[in-house]
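Tokens help. Our protein:
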Amino acid sequence: MAGINNANGGRKEKRLAGSVALVTGGSRGVGRAIAHRLAMLGASVAICGRDRAALERVAAELEKLGARAFFHITDVTDAKQVSALVAEADAALGSINILVNNAGIGLFGPAHEKTEADWDRVVNTNLKGVFLVSRAAVPSMIRRGSGDIINISSLAGRNTFAGGGIYCASKWGLMGLSGCMMEDLREHGIRVSVVCPGSVATEFAGSGPKNPAKALSPDDVAHAVQAIVTQRPGSVLSEIQLRTLRKA
């Protein structure tokens, strides 16, 4: 987008100056790329994850970009930890007006071969986590009468494939949750969007190594988030599907 600083070194324009963003799963991969992009756009950025060293490293990167940064070790499936995350991020940076629910895991193989613990781990992270973090962040957005919630789903939330039973179930559920959240919150001035990438070249848990030439990059997903949060206030990009230009 013209006028936006990006990985290729465009002109800096702090279109999100004064905004406060929270990116779950922000210590690596897609979450890290999104946090970087929001920082370059001028937002203060809070990130959470489970790896302290990785969180510290990314927070330092965000500060080098000129952003105010905050990190919090959080299990997004734990309501108490989520409440602490949002409260402490608010205290450190101000009220959150951009929430990116990115934290997620993958576990693949025939559903009938998986355990109940496998199901709980994937569905709780990919679906319950979005519910918990959104529930904690929404009240202040309602009071302010504005906000953006971006849920990072997957094309697996639109398509089925062998070995994807539990993962697809979590992402199909996320699509339904996102659509209902959009209807519940639009009258409060809050936009809810979902981004559905295809295969992304990251160390995403549960999937094998990807050929970067045949996969999306984390920056592709970050660009989609940028498009959503810089959309004019009276409209919403409710769903973005991302695919590689050429099929693998």
